[in-house]
Amino acid sequence: MEILNADSTGVERAVRILKNGGLVAFPTETVYGLGCDVFNEDAVKRLFEVKKRPRSKPLIVGVSDMDEVHEIAEVNRDAERLMNAFFPGPLTIVFKKRRNIPDIVTGGSDKVAVRMPDHEVPLKLIEKLGKPIVVPSANITGRPSPMSYTHVIEDIGDKIDAVIVGECSVGIESTIVDVTTKPARVLRLGAVRVDDLRKHLDVVLETWKREVYFVSCPVYLFLGSNAVDRILEFASKSRDKGLKVAVIAKKDIFENTIVVGTTLKEYSANIFNAVRKAESMKPDLIVIEGPDVEHEGLMDRLYRLAGERVFKT
Ligand code: TXA
Ligand code: MG
To answer: For the chain, what is the total number of helices (H) and then of strands (E)?
Structure first.
């Protein structure tokens, strides 16, 4: 596996690998993505295997300009409104697909999910390749998304062809909205708030069962104004029982605290990295202090980390 810089030499090398049917991981504005040529079915098959992803779960297709969207999808008025407002950016739109998109990409569905990343690296890869690439998160299925190239290497480094070094700034995956129905339906909460979608389009929330992430030890989430006090109490008691505790909090409040910051932006950008850092300490449990500002995409990811272990204080 090659580690490439995000400069023109690195991007050119990555494009060559993609042309040859290879798999390349790269930063996007949300989280690290794992890409291959969307029209190369062997490469797409291999990507499903690397991610240990069930074939029924479709892949998002990444584009670098509006024309590409029209080439692979049927764009209606609702879609156009959202594209004008949010492309490029952390919104994925589900369209009726055109026939050129292989069935394996969409898990056999007649719909295709498309997004235009707001990040120079994937935009250049797509532009220079001259066609779309798939842009799933670069984790093994069930794990939190990677935010750094080192985490990608830890998880799948031996199974992919290259990783491009760079930064993800948002930290929460794209919001997904299906515009093939009226009203449009939000299929996944994410970086774009539902209220912001509603400024452009009437949308309803699809109900779904939240999948819990696989984390190496139990995760406890404390929300509300007394979270710090409750965490200190809980963490001290656990420590007294001989358990190793890792704490993820807005500020340094306990031994082994990983600080994620107080603003929503900092908190979101740091949370997935913090969980992996906490895991690397090999604790018996991880305790997380919730954020101050309510953001449904971020809260969804925290609930996926904690499962049932959520405490409102
Ligand atoms: O921010 C993101 O979207 C990141 C970056 C790397 O692009 N990607 C990402 O991909 O989160 P992934 O594979 O981890 O999640 C894609 C989600 C899955 O839940 C999948 O079911 C849904 O998108 N999806 C993909 N194609 C779809 C389709 N045709 N219809 C409905 N849902 C679809
Ligand atoms: Mg994912």
So the answer is: 11, 17
What ligand 1 atom has the least distance to the C-alpha of 53?
Answer: 13
**Which residue type sits at 113?**
A
Cross-sheet strand order for the sheet of 310-312: 257-259, 245-249, 285-289, 219-223, 310-312
User: Which runs of consecutive H residues, i.e. helices, occur in 130-263?
Assistant: 149-156, 194-198, 227-240
From the alpha carbon of 135, which atom of ligand 1 is closest? 7
Q: What's the CA gap between 51 and 172, in Å, rounded?
A: 19
Contact in structure between 171 and 147 (CB atoms under 8 Å)? yes
Instruction: Name the pLDDT band for 208 (thresholds 50, 70, 90).
Output: confident
Predicted model pTM = 0.97
In angstroms, rounded to a whole number, what is the distance separating the alpha carbons of residues 111 and 143?
A: 25
Q: pLDDT by residue (tens digit) across 256-299?
A: 899 999 999 999 999 999 999 999 999 999 999 999 888 999 99
Q: Which two structure tokens, joined as six digits, stand for 202?
A: 């009437």
Top mutation candidate among 24, 60, 64 for ligand 1, by most atoms within 8 Å of CB: 60
